[in-house]
Specification:
Elements: H1 3-23, H2 32-53, H3 66-84
Length: about 80
């Protein structure tokens, strides 16, 4: 895992987190790092959901697309706001 991969993960996680915050009903007051973390974890959750629904032929984990990443981030955001905050 190189530096470029880490930077791109942070950027994609931030974008996914921003979209999830925008779609989630009500005001969601989170900082940059928490929004990014929710987006990154949401992408991983979306990848797991995608792996369960759409089996990959080689059996390996594949990252989720934008839609499933946002769905996963919405789930993580819901858990965070209702159970962890």
């Amino acid at each position: 895992m190189g530096l470029f991969h880490i930077i791109s993960m942070i950027i994609v996680g931030f974008i996914v987190g921003i979209i999830a915050r925008f779609v989630y009903p009500g005001a969601v007051d989170l900082g940059f790092w928490l929004t990014t973390l929710i987006g990154i974890i949401g992408s991983l959750v979306g990848g797991v959901i995608g792996g369960l629904v759409f089996r990959s032929p080689d059996g390996k984990f594949h990252p989720a697309g934008w839609f499933l990443s946002v769905v996963g981030a919405l789930l993580v955001l819901w858990v965070y706001l209702n159970y962890l905050k």
